[in-house]
Structure formats: C-alpha cells, structure tokens
C-alpha cells in the first residue's frame, strides 16, 4: 500500500492545533488525521468481519448493526455473523471492554487502516470501535467497479468529550421510536449525549411509581414507562450515547404541581393547560426537599449516568415575591434576593444529588457565588456565561448558538465554537474546563412528524464542530459532506427528507403537489423566536402544526444553490454561461409557478395564506430574468425599473405566513448589479 | 339532513346484485351502499369520540389508533381519550363484543351516518366498527374551509369473508416491524387475513422450542421468537386481521430437513443453501407423523386461528420415485401414483390437524378424490381448480390472478373475479363455497426495503375486488381512488412511495438523481417470471437486490398518465391542445434526459446496464415529438421515416436490465397514426 500523504507531515494525531486539510472523503465529522492512499478495497457480498482481542455482547451487537447498515446502504444481503478468519474484510481489535456505565472521560479514539486487501479497526474499547465503524460506513462509495472504500489511514479522536443533543419532550411528546432513530443519527455523527428534557410546564413524561400523580395529572397520558426508559437507556448505551435526564427545578415545572400542588410557591390549583401561572417550587419547605430526595432516588434507578440536570433556568420570581412566608424566609436567612434563594435551593439540591451519587448540572442561571464548584454549568444565554463559569472553576458546556429551534442555517451554528468569543481569552487551565456543547431541540413547534427535519442534517454541523479540529472551517466542504450524510441518514429511518411529501399532500388535498413543492423548496420558517409573535394570546403550543412553516426545511438547499450560482455568475463578470443558464432555468420555473399554484391555493384553507408568497416568488423571478438580460447585454437597467423592482424586493423580505422567501437576496444582487453596468462604458 | 340520493332507489344494502355507482368519494374499497347528502361535518381540534353500547379494550385501542391516525392525517393534536358526551363528533355503538379468536363467519358490516352536526358509526361488534373507522379516515378531505367529511350515509359489508394477503418470509426474511406496517395497510383496505408463509426451502422462520434445530439449522439466524409471534398475532387481532400460518408439507421444506434429515424421502444431507435437492417428506414412516403431531401441537399454541395451511403444492415426485421403500409402500397400500401417496399423506395430516382443532387448508394440488371435504382449497394454478373444488364440495379461495410478484398492473388483478371464468357456470350452492381470495407476495425478489412497493398500492385493488360489489368495475375510478389511498398509506409508515429515493441515491453514488428518477419513473420490472431467466445456474435469490429492477415501481404512474393523455389527444382528432401540450412537455423532458443521465451511467456499476434503456427513452420521445408535428399539421409522415421509427419502437420493446420501457406503446400509436392522416385529404 502506497500512502499518498495529503496532509502535511506536521498533521500528527497528537495535535489538534494543526490545520485540517479539506479532502475528497465524505466524512462528517472530519477525523483528526486522514492519510489517503491509492487504490480501493472492494465491498461486495463476500464482506466479512472478524474480531481479535476483547469481545463482548455490546461489541457484537455493534458489529451486527454495522453489517445491517452496510446491507442497507448497499442493498446486499451480508452475513451478520462474525467470522473466525485470519483474512476478513474488516478486522476489529479492541484492547479492553467499555465501562458498564459510559463515562465522560472514556477514551473514544480509534485507528482505521484500510488497504486494498483488508481493513483493520483498532481502539482501546468498543466505544472507539463504534465510532470507527461509523467512519467505515461513511467511506463506502458507489463506483464504476462496485462498492468500495478508499485505501486510507485514519487516526481519530474527539476534540470535546461532551457532544450532545437536547430533546425537549415536555411541550410535545416524542415517542420512543422517533427518539431511537435520532439516537441512530447521533451515533452516525459520533455524538455521545442525549440530554433528555423530560418535563416542562406543558407536560411530565416519566412514569413515577412513587409519585404517580406526576404522570397522571401532569400529562395527557403520553409518558414513558419505566420499562420503556430502561430499554431506551440500554439502546443508547449500545450506541455509545449517554442519557442525561433533565428535571426542571425550581421553575418550568407547572406540570409537576398538577399532581402535587403543595410543592409550589403559590396557591394553585395547577393544570398542564396553557395559560396557567409560571409556577415555581417552594424552596422554604422541608417537604419540597423530602419530595426531591425520594424523586431523585427513584429516577437514579432509571438513569445510570453520573450526571443529573436540574434545569434551574428562567426562574420567575413573582410567586416568591407574592408569598410573604417565602420573603420572610429570605430575610431570616440573611439573603437579599430571589437569586440568593435559588442559590440556597441549589446548594441543598446538590447535596441531595450527591447523596444519590449524581453530579449536578444546571443552566447558566445557576451561577452564583454560593454554587458548589462540582456543578456543571450549561451556557444558553451567551458565550460570556460559558467563559465566566470556566473562570470561576466550573466545568461548562455551550448551547448558546446551537439552538436548532431558532431555524438558523447550518453554517451559522457551524461558526459558533465553544472556544471562541469570551472563551478565547481564557487561560489554558480555564479552557480545559470547557468540556463541549449541546445542540438543543426545544419542542414548542415540533411534533413526531417534523422533528427529524428540525434536527437533521443541521445537527451534524454542530457534531462536527464538537468533534473535529477547530481549524475545520470550510463551509463549502461542510455543506457538501452534510448533503451526502443527509441522504445516508435516510437508511436509519430518519424522515427529515421524506416527511415533507405526505405533509404537502395533506395541505393540498389533491393529487399534484409539483407547484406547491416548488414554493416549499425556496422558503424557510422565520428565524429566532419571531414565530412566537403569531401566538395571539397565551403561549399555547397545542394547536395544529400543519402549516407550511411546520413543514418547510429550516434551510433551503435550493436557495443556497441559487446564492452560490449567482455568486459564480457575478464573479465571472457575467460571462459564465453555465451559471447563467442554471439561473435562468430556475427563474423561469419560479416565474411560471404562481399561475400553476394559484388554483390550488383557493381549494385549501392550509394553502390560502401562501398566496402572497407565491406571487412574490414569481414577481422576483421575472425581475431576475430581466436583470440577467441587462447584465448579459451590458446595458444599464433603467433607474425607474430598478427602483420599482427593489421596492418589490423589499416587500418580499417581509415574512408571510411565518415564512421567509429565501431567493430574495440573490435577485436583489442581480437587480442592483444591473445598474453597475452603467459605470463601465 | 337532506339526503341527495345518488344511487338508484334499488341500491339496497341487502343486495350486491345492483350496479354500484361511481361517486366522488375517495373510498377504497367502495362500500356496498353510499347515499351522499349535502353539506359537510367539520373535523377540527374539537373532534371527539364517544362510545355507547358495548365497550372493551380492543375497541378502545381501535379508537385510539383511529384518533392517532386522524392526527397524522390532519397534523392536529387530538384528544385520545374517549369522552362521555351526548354530542361527540363521532358516536360509536357496537351491540356486542367480537369473538376472542376472530372467525371467518363473523359479521363485519357497519353503518355510518354523517350529518352536519355529527357522525354515528354502528356495528354488531368491534370488528365492524374497525372497518367503519377506516371509512371515516378515508372520508376526511382538505377543503377551503378546513378538514371535513361529507354528509353521507354508508351501509357496508364485505362480498367475501376471506380477503387475504400472503407474505412469504421464507425466501427473504421480513422483520416484524415491516410486517406490522403492512398489517396497518391491510386494515386500511379492510383485508382480514394475513397468510403467513413461514418457511420454504430457503429458510425456516419460527422459533420452535420442541424442535430447535428447525430454526438453528434451517435459518441464517433470522426467525421470529414465540414471544414475538404472540405479540404479532395480537397486533393483527387488534386490527381485525386473522393470521393463518402456512407450514409446507410434504414439499418446499428443505429448510426443515436441515435440522431433521430423517423426515426426508432422500438421504440428504440438507442445507438451506441454494441448489440443494427439492426434498420431500417421507409419508411412509411413523416418525414423520409423530413429528407433525408434536409440531402442530406446538404451533397451535402460537396461532389461535382455526385454519392451518399445510401447503401441499409442487410436490416433486423424484425423491419418492428414487426411494424403493416408498415405492413398495405405494404398491402395498393399493395406491397407483405419487398423487395417491400425497392424498394418503393429506388424509393423515387432516386427522392430526383435526386432533389439534385446526381446519386444514392446502394449495390446489391437494385436490384428490380421497381428500376430506372439510379441507379448504386455495387455487393458484387457474380459475378452473377453484370451480372444480367448489363443485366437489370444498370451500375454496382464489389466488390465481392475484400474484403480486408477477408485476402486473393493478388493473390486471382488478379484472380477476373469483366468480368469473370457470366459476361463472357454477350453481348457487357451489358458488357459495367460494369464500374469497388472497393476494400473494412471494419473496424471491423481495426485501424489507422494497416489499412495501411490491404490495402497495396494487394490493388495494385486490382488496376492493374481494370486498365490493362485482359491478364495481370502472378502472379509471379505481386508479383515482388508488392514487389517493396510496398517499394516505404513507401516514402508516409504509415506504412504497418513499423507498425509491434513497435506493436511487445508492445507485447513483452522487448528489443529483433527477435524470435517473426520470428514467426510473417510466420503467417497470419485467412481467410474470421472466426475471427467473436472468438466474444463470441455480435458483439463488440471495444476491444483491439493488438494481433498478428491484426499485422501479411494478406499475409506472407516468406511463399510465401518458397512455391516458395520448388517448384523449387521439380521441379529440388531434385537436385537444392541453393534451398535446402535456404530451410535448413529457416528450421534451425525456428526449433531453439521456444527455443528462449519460455521464452518471458511467460512474456506477449499478447504472451501467441502463444505458440502452435511457437511449431508447430519448429516441422514442424524439420520434413522438415528430409524430405530433405531423399530426398537428395534418401532414402524412413519410413512409420511410415511419418504418424506421417503428423499428426503433420494436427494439425498445425488448426488456433491458430486466426492465420494460412503458412509454413505447403510446409513442407507437402516435407514429402509426401519423400515417392515417394521409387518408383524410
């Protein structure tokens, strides 16, 4: 095997500080070190796996899943059984077993050496092997000569030990089969923590035996039984994923008071119905701590992970302010503010968790001079709090910038690095306290139907940020690899690509959705929390989620492609004919789309609101075509025309039906450029 | 509620002999009686269900599923709990409970009355209610004013009591989750029997505790455990579906001899590997019957249905011929032929089944003068054997004409009626013995990935044939309703529509599959068993199933649409401009497709074989466009041109890569018609 070193010699496994080269391999996250060789190893029906060294049931199940996935990817029936051969296609060697309960500090590195005659995957434990197997799957390509993987040597390990995804199942219940396929997706991009936000004001989702009114009164009947949770935790463990449960205290817990109103700071009664008070636990009563003690004890039997998240965010002080007993308690204990009271509560909480052998985690509001240094701080309000926590001696992780429900493009998440911003000026010891990050999937607007499309593929960009070298920054490369991954994820049953079609048919109530699809492919849901504005009165998220805003991808591939090709065209001085041709084809289709779509819009109450958007798309496309004509002929466009078109552009920038038309910007560029030609002659 | 009677007054619930009107409702199968009224009942988030009369857990689970499916279909969060209201949206009334083990004779009728203020669904038992709930789901439409169902009165009941689907899990193992979603699909079209072909030469799929070598030696490790089977049977029962297991005896059972060679008529050894002898049980030894006795006893604990299928088809006599002991047995028992020996075997088998309270079923080869009249005969070799069996006093059902693996269009299955052909001349008593039919999904070329696309939506056409009045014959209406159903089935997780995309990406190994999809959408797998010819040596079905023939739909919607629009165009005397425009658009896209697809074809070993097909498509489309020019101008096409084009047409008719190009025929028509114009002037 002749290794063609594509990275510089300085690219050593031991250092992340070296620039990561872009290479042709469709791997995401990019490995720490890749040495691409010449030649390929065929992957055909004779594919076999052998194991030397350590072997256990977890490893065997991992190999079975790998073979099953390889079967899916290739459409070939492959032998599931591990063979006892000295020359298998893939030889796996783990030195020793993984921890029974996966630990944060566990070694996740692996080494993969592929030659033309076979592949060898080595790791300290099955955990590293699992990651390496995902790399093998991503390496498989369809070629003129069959399926194969390239000759390559990969040495890989994560940059951060904590690479998580939070899923909120409180606001909308998400069934376990949906969560399982998302665990499969996480494993595919080497994420290792599912942060399970198990209740919120709107619903309590764990079946407690000790406190059954939690689920009986605190949910609409949709919750996980303890058997289901145990099986789910085992499922995650098999995939190298830790499950960290979050139980919100003292705020965000109205659903908890539905069954146990005596824990709350206000009189109640409490319901999970929307619009009730944003209730908070009463930290002044013994009974509160007795409840927490028993509750944590029960939950500790379900969740073996050493970390336990207590929430602690957005504590609304109004119930504390309104309760004279609580105010008296604050004064009598020498405290000054509600924040002091929360710190008091957190200290007692931390002791209870410690009693049950759990390390406490909380959102960055828990930061307070009195907070024990063992608590892990999760930063969501900004990168400053991450740096502050690290400076003050807390282990901390970043979620600010990784909120998937904000509907940002992948590139925007990708640009956020836990070590950037305020953290950049920390000293090495402080920096070492930053242990990773978590993408967050809050579920106000999320259902089992659309959740995959909100998580994937964007979550993979965050996974790469947390695994790969900080020098891996090429957004173009990221999108290329993200696109390939997105298709691979379909083999895991994820519906992020396929779910749009039936949902559009539901909206259309008719058989041809071509024109609707054309519109749907160039819009995106409004960004940040703009959509909250459309809630007229109370924050009620139980309404139908069947509008286009619920279905449209958070990031339009078509719009990104248009932006790229318009850049190419402009960059070529309006000479690149292929680019011009592609832009014209797209514009022509969009220009004609409104006429096709319009009859449909009137037939369905779900489509009605899309009329102005559809009109904007056609108007803009027509304007774009004219701008192209001017640019092609090097004739300046008339000022009056341009002014008029740019006012249409402005109109099109306004969100409609909670959607943004994503082709506005490149059209605007072309219109504006059509003036610039006047300078030239 | 003002009822607008759209059927004649003679359309009574009690008679199937009255012509079924075509109506605008997208129901499949069409109900026995439909009276459409004016107005609609809204389906919004206040939708509620109440139950009067009989109520049990099965009914409650059925209602929960109904509400969950309605939630899926509408994208609305709906209350799962049954309410205690006098004015629910849907009132359900069952008179009494269903049988613990669902029986063939059980009443399945229901009555659904929908007014503008509410709906009422009535049936004798939950079984009828389940069917009625499926009708409600199909009635939901997206309108300008919201989701709603029409004001209608439906009285419905099945024409045949046995409406089944056979799934062969012997040749290719099909996991239970795949089978479950297909059960959901069956329930949606009111099918009530899953005929589970549980083993064949290539694999034994049930975990036996008494004879563990059956699965250990007779499978590749892929089989169902007894717990899984019990859960699956309960799942089916919840959906009004009986599970009839088939255990092939005495032939088609090589996998059985892998662990128990002493049961075979020849010396062995036996393997499930392909190419082994087509072995047959030895019906002359006591041990054979002892085995069957114990085996049936064990299986009877798993499968509560009163029917038990013993196969009995395609018994290869060569092992019996070659065994002197067996030949001596035949002579010494006064028998003449191997058929006599099989009849002897079947008689003893029937007694053993009867001992375990099972009614025996067999394929039509079991017909023999000595066959007990209690045996049910399943006809696969032709409609004659169905009639013969009925004439001879056997209950019988039809599968001939319903073999889904033959890749016929839905219309071809739809045209086959159990009462047509030889059965048409039976007397009423004989006719009454024909109890229904079964679609058959044999799995030589079927995997978990493509099985949904082989079953759906075509299976629904067979379901309608078996449920609805024989006068329901309008193929155009059937296709319209089939198309709507096909999309609804996606909400059940069926992948018949969505599975093509990832499979095409696998083939292409690149990011743009537009041109490949264009080709894939106009081809169909070769029909009947033509594909067997591509097996070079032994019948080995374990090869990769990742070619376009494995992915392409058995029936091309695009090609059907082309045929229809070409008919419209011709029927209009070449005047219909809309039709002409649509044909031109399609032809133009196809003409240009080969140039787009060609670069891709060279990059992938899986696409290579498609080159001639792609070329044919473009050539034909170009010829079709020219033919349109001649027709439009009323100018006769030159003879030489026509001769040349028709030879291309002939070339395009030859299957390539086991695929047929389905647009050939309409193009041929246009070319031929372009001559006809010469007559006119």
List descriptors:
homodimer, 681 residues, alpha/beta, 8-stranded parallel β-sheet, 7-stranded mixed β-sheet, 25 helices, globular, disordered N terminus, disordered C terminus
How much strand content do the residues of chain A show? 5-15%
Main beta sheet strand tally, sense and closure of chain A: 8 strands, parallel
In order across it, which strands form the biggest sheet of chain A?
Answer: 12-9-8-17-16-15-14-13
For the secondary structure, the number of strands of chain A is 19
Structural class of chain A: alpha/beta
Oligomeric status of the shown chains? homodimer
Low-confidence stretches of chain A: 1-23, 677-681
Number of helices of chain A: 25
Helical content of chain A (DSSP H or I, runs of 4+): 40-55%
Biggest interface reads: A-B, 48 and 48 residues
Structure description:
The structure is a homodimer of 681-residue chains. By secondary structure, chain A is α/β, with parallel strands linked by helices. Helix content of chain A is 41%, strand content 14%. Chain A has 25 helices and 19 strands. An 8-stranded parallel beta sheet of chain A has the order 12-9-8-17-16-15-14-13. In chain A, strands 1, 2, 3, 4, 5, 6 and 7 form a 7-stranded mixed beta sheet that branches. Chain A has a two-stranded antiparallel ribbon with strand order 10-11. In chain A, helix 3 runs parallel beside helix 5 (226-238). Chains A and B meet through helix 1, strand 6, helix 16 and helix 17 of A and helix 1, strand 6, helix 16 and helix 17 of B.
